[in-house]
Structure formats: C-alpha cells, structure tokens
Amino acid sequence: MIDPLSANPEVRRDQEAVFARLAAENPGRLVLHRARSLPLLDEIGAFDAILIDGDHNWYTVIEELRAVERMARRHGIVPFIAIDDIGWPHGRRDCYFAPETIPPAFLHPHRRGCLIPGQPGISESGPFGNFSHAEHEGGPRNGVRTAVEDFLRETTLDLVCRQVPLRSGTAVLIPRDDGPSGAAIRHWLDAWQFGETQMAALWEASAEHIALINMIGPLTSEVAALRRQVAADATPRP
Ligand SMILES: C[S@@+](CC[C@H](N)C(=O)[O-])C[C@H]1O[C@@H](n2cnc3c(N)ncnc32)[C@H](O)[C@@H]1O
To answer: Of 70, 146, 184, 194, whose Cβ has the fewest other Cβ atoms within 10 Å?
Structure first.
C-alpha cells in the first residue's frame, strides 16, 4: 500500500488506525510505503495487481498508469489494473491533495468548495467541501476518467477496459487475451456491460448516491454536536 497519509493529524490518525487493523488481519502480508505513488511506483518492483485510488487528478493518474506500463515492460507481466473514482465527482474534474506536487502546466485553476451533480462550477454548500477541486468540470486533461481514456489511446499494451458504475465508479483494465486465468474476473465484469442509455442512467444514479452519502456523514456529526450542546445547556448548573 502506498499512501503519504494526510497532513491533518485527525485524518492521519484514522488512516493509521485503518492500516493497523488491516495489518493485524493480514499478518506479514501488508507493507505501508508512506510516500506518494510517483515516483515510488517505478521503484517497488513487479506486481500482479494494482488499485489506483490516490490523488484523483489527470496528471497523477496518467503518470501512475504510465509507470504501470513501464513495470509491465520491465518484468513481462501485465497486471490487473483497477482505477477508482472514474464517476462523479472526479471522473471529469481534478481534485488535488497536494497541488504543489502537480507541474503547473497540468494544474487547473482550483479552490476548496462543494460539488453538486450536474453543476460544472464549485458550490458554496454541499458535499466534498474539504477538498481542493478544479473550478470547472470537463475539458481536456481534467479528471480520472479522462486520464484513463487518454492512457488507453497511447498505451501499446493490449488492454480491455470495463467500467463498473457503482459508488464513485471503477474502471478495470485487463489484458485482452489472458487465457483461462482471467475467466472468473472477465465473467464478473461482463455482467456490468449494459447499453449506453442504461449506463448513463446508472452513472447518474451513482452520482446522486455519492453526493447524498457524502452529505449525510457531515450532517450527522453536526446534529450530534448540536444535541450535545443542547443537552449541556439544559443541564442545571450547581
Ligand atoms: C480516497 S482515499 C482512498 C484510500 C483507500 N484506497 C480506501 O479506499 O480507503 C485517497 C487516499 O490517497 C492518498 N493519497 C493522496 N495523494 C496520494 C499520492 N500522490 N500517492 C498515493 N496516495 C495518495 C490519501 O492520503 C488517501 O488516503
């Protein structure tokens, strides 16, 4: 697992707790590289599978995929590649955990603010307010899905791309011809192949779903804090 962990101590504590739990559940099988994916992906050797779910912007994702291709060439392995967040909100809009790590030519004008499905700008209220996003959704070199599409146009690996429109959306890239070993995953992915109209409806529903669950979390914490406050105010003082 490669993750630099958050600079925010509260978030970092939660991330460390998740890692500690996973390490305890998988003794000896988990290593946390406390670093950014770039350039580490070029240094960690061969791997059979990778889930890309880090900094959700065009530059980082396409460079991660290019590093995976270099690994594939060096070691003669075409790994199973999954890329998370190809749907709303970051499929067509960059998000930046650390804008200073993105070369200026690839950094869109960005700021912290909230995102609403169907609104290409940034909103003052709504979900995702804790992150820095590109001010406009869409256009070239913007977002995770755009990075996957651009990579597929340039790669010389013979890959098939399948999209799973669940939650924030996942793309899976598998070798076109991986023989019987890939049959099970191919069978599962084939179940997600729908017509264009049905896919569009599923993407829309998953955007609404993600927006709602990302609003309910913070609202629930706010309501709990207000309840505590009301209870404290109502407690008679000695
Ligand atoms: C959306 S979370 C996903 C975490 C994990 N995959 C999960 O599902 O719980 C994104 C993670 O990417 C990490 N991250 C941010 N920038 C990164 C980078 N350049 N390389 C690797 N990880 C990064 C963040 O610290 C955060 O933990």
So the answer is: 184
Give the pLDDT confidence of 121-146 residue by residue, as tens digits.
Answer: 999 999 999 899 999 999 999 999 99
pLDDT given for residue 181 in this prediction: 73
Q: How far is the CA of 180 from the centre of ligand 1 (A)?
A: 33
Strand, helix or coil at 171?
strand
* pLDDT (0 to 100) of residue 20: 95
* CA of 55, closest atom in ligand 1: 16
Report how far residue 84's alpha carbon sits from residue 203's, in angstroms, rounded to the nearest whole number: 14
Model pTM score? 0.92
Q: Region of 5 please: left (phi>0), alpha (psi -120 to 50) or beta.
A: left
Would you say the CB of residue 160 lies under 6 angstroms from ligand 1?
no
Q: What is the mean pLDDT of the chain?
A: 94
- Closest atom of ligand 1 to 15 CA is 27
